[in-house]
């Protein structure tokens, strides 16, 4: 695809950098043919992936968003919904199959006040808008066209791949990132319009910065979506002379990508963040206005699809009867599709066993090295939830939990550390070995049932998976913390404080953490860990990390993988990472040390390693030639896996490298703080890559 070369697009190179934050949406809420903006109360013409609050419905307003009991994004106070079309792959025989997303998505909130330093406002309650045109099939130089772009991610061989206005015609080893920017100027009157666009406008002079026109004088905070798709899965299945992917509405060009936004923020929180979150690191953690939910809570916020149709494939026709329309003329909407037209209730996320005398309690947490349910256990290749509750009942227990598809655990109480988060479905998404129509927990997750007593038997009312009732509060997730705010067990025991000991081989990518009780009486939230159902090989790593006494000053380790050494404290570019590869074992950041990070990066063929924010490990093999080191005092965070070691800081990396490959370049990484300040001043804050300057502005 050709690069966009309009004057408006090129003018972004001179745009000033601005404060922003990235809202992580950890997973999709639901994937279905729903669009309450374009097709309220009806089935949408094509499939969307939807993120955000579980108040989402086929027809909804601002009040519905506020009834949410959870959100798939991580910031407290935001129950907005964000959605885009779904990506499909077309086989050589003409059939289609859905492409998986990599996680959920990122929503950027940017404070772009323009040359007149306009007062930026939070979105008004009830605002809804669309950016992009699903029927567009050709490029354009207008702002609406420039607001749509793609980036083919190839971190090792071509980290600087240019952005394109349509689908790139090359394979993307690390995924295809799809991007849509929304207009930020509001007419001040209408919360919607007939085309869902006219009440909004892009600024004067650029789609992502500038002053607002007189017709749309109210300058709102800007938003921008990034969604990554796992297209590399199909790298050996390309055919013909062009790329094989298309959007759900039958668009093989990419020009028809679009995004929808429905405001669901607590407006006071959003306005406070717009006014006060002026850090340009992009991290929501750096904004004191925000309270954050644990990732597992966001990942576990789900709704079932209410349309009984296959959206995964393979199938001969896209859902909604959408034909492939290549253009260049605009596509013709489908109006006579005879496919499913019924909006149902949606399937339950759990097996109802009330007829057998057991009520579902929700999806709880487990730890391989410190089991939540310790009464009795069994593993069966034909496991179902019926068999699990039968087994536990026969053993005299009142609590049963299925896990990892075929395991069953029993007890007489659910420890508060393992209790389900009220109103959240959780991550119990592994089919039972004996019946793939029901879920039997997952790795580190328990499908929990309790034996009923008395004359009635019912499931818990707080297991999530349905649209909350009108007027219901969102208190189920209104107190963010590092764990579920669960009630104590029936025996009245309090939650024990915990310390983590890393166990397993970090380079395997699936190391786990054992949680050890310190027998305190405080009701402290347990550390959230990323556990596996079975351990990886390897020896204990950093047993000293369980010590309650922290070193006064962490240092850079000197005993490292041979030929590696410490280089400098280096700024991390947020939108395109300085080191692009996040080591998968750091998803459980209690395992991270600078030593383990260097080991993982080295074993996977990288020559640079960097730890950041106490619990992140990044790898790479190249660096922008004009990046420079900063004051070592900025890399002051102790590693979460070993508090005696430094692991970078907020927006800065403790950088390590292979001696023979990096020492020739080390001099430019240690030029000192004053030169860094001059560099940042010249380039409008040097924390942006040249590539993403086109999206956000930042390099002169």
TrEMBL record:
It comes from the Eukaryota. Residues 357-452, 563-659 form the WSC domain. Residues 503-516 have a biased composition (Polar residues). The keyword Lipoprotein does not apply. InterPro entries: DUF1996, WSC_carb-bd. Residues 1-19 form the signal peptide. It holds the Pfam family DUF1996. Residues 468-502, 517-561 have a biased composition (Low complexity). Keywords: Signal. Residues 464-561 are annotated as: Disordered. This is WSC domain-containing protein. It comes from Knufia fluminis.
């Amino acid at each position: 695809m050709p690069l966009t070369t309009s004057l408006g697009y090129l003018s972004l190179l001179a745009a000033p950098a601005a404060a922003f934050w990235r809202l992580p949406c950890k997973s999709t809420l639901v994937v279905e043919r729903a669009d309450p903006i374009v097709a309220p109360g009806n089935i949408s013409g094509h499939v969307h992936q939807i993120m955000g609050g579980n108040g989402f419905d086929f027809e909804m307003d601002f009040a519905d968003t506020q009834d949410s009991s959870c959100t798939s994004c991580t910031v407290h106070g935001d129950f907005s919904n964000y959605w885009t079309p779904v990506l499909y792959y077309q086989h050589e025989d003409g059939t289609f199959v859905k492409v998986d997303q990599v996680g959920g998505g990122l929503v950027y909130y940017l404070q772009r006040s323009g040359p007149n330093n306009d007062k930026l406002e939070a979105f008004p309650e009830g605002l809804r808008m669309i950016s992009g045109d699903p029927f567009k099939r050709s490029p354009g130089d207008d702002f609406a066209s420039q607001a749509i772009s793609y980036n083919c991610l190839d971190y090792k061989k071509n980290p600087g791949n240019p952005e394109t206005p349509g689908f790139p015609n090359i394979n993307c080893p690390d995924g295809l990132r799809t991007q849509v920017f929304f207009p930020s100027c509001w007419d001040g009157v209408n919360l919607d319009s007939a085309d869902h666009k006219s009440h909004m406008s892009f600024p004067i002079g650029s789609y992502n910065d500038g002053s607002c026109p007189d017709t749309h004088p109210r300058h709102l905070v800007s938003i921008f979506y990034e969604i990554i798709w796992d297209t590399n899965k199909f790298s050996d299945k390309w055919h013909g002379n062009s790329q094989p992917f298309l959007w759900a509405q039958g668009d093989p060009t990419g020009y028809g990508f679009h995004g929808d936004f429905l405001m669901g923020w607590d407006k006071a929180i959003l306005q406070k963040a717009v006014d006060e979150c002026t850090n340009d690191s992009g991290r929501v953690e750096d904004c004191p206005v925000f309270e954050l939910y644990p990732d597992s809570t966001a990942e576990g916020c789900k709704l079932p699809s209410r349309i009984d149709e296959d959206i995964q494939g393979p199938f001969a026709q896209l859902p909604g009867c959408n034909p492939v329309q290549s253009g260049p003329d605009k596509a013709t909407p489908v109006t006579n599709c005879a496919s499913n037209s019924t909006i149902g209730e949606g399937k339950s996320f759990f097996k109802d066993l009330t007829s057998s005398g057991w009520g579902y309690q929700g999806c709880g947490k487990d730890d391989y090295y410190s089991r939540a349910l310790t009464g009795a256990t069994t593993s069966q290749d034909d496991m179902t939830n019926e068999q699990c509750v039968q087994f536990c009942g026969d053993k005299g227990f009142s609590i049963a939990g299925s896990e990892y598809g075929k395991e069953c655990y029993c007890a007489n109480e659910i420890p508060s550390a393992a209790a389900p988060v009220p109103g959240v479905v959780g991550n119990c998404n592994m089919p039972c070995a004996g019946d793939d129509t029901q879920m039997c927990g997952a790795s580190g997750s328990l499908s929990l049932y309790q034996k009923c007593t008395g004359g009635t038997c019912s499931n818990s009312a707080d297991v999530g998976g349905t649209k909350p009732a009108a007027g219901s509060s969102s208190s189920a997730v209104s107190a963010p913390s590092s764990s579920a705010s669960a009630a104590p067990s029936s025996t009245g025991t309090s939650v024990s404080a915990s310390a983590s000991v890393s166990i397993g081989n970090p380079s395997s990518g699936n190391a786990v953490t054992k949680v050890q009780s310190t027998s305190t009486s405080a009701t402290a939230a347990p550390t959230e860990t990323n556990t596996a159902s079975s351990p990886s090989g390897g020896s204990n790593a950093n047993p000293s990390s369980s010590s309650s006494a922290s070193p006064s000053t962490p240092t850079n380790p000197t005993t490292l993988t041979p030929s590696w050494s410490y280089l400098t404290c280096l700024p991390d570019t947020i939108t395109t990472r300085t080191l692009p590869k996040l080591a998968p074992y750091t998803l459980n950041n209690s395992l991270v040390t600078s030593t383990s990070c260097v080991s993982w990066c080295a074993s996977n063929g990288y020559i640079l390693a960097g730890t950041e924010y106490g619990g992140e490990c990044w790898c790479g093999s190249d660096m922008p030639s004009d990046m420079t080191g900063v004051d070592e005092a900025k890399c002051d965070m102790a590693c979460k896996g070993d508090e005696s070691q430094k692991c970078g800081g907020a927006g800065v990396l403790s950088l390590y490298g292979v001696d023979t490959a990096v020492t020739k370049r080390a001099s430019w990484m240690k030029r000192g703080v004053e030169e860094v300040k001059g560099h940042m001043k010249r380039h409008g804050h040097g924390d942006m890559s040249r590539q993403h300057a086109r999206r956000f502005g930042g390099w002169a």
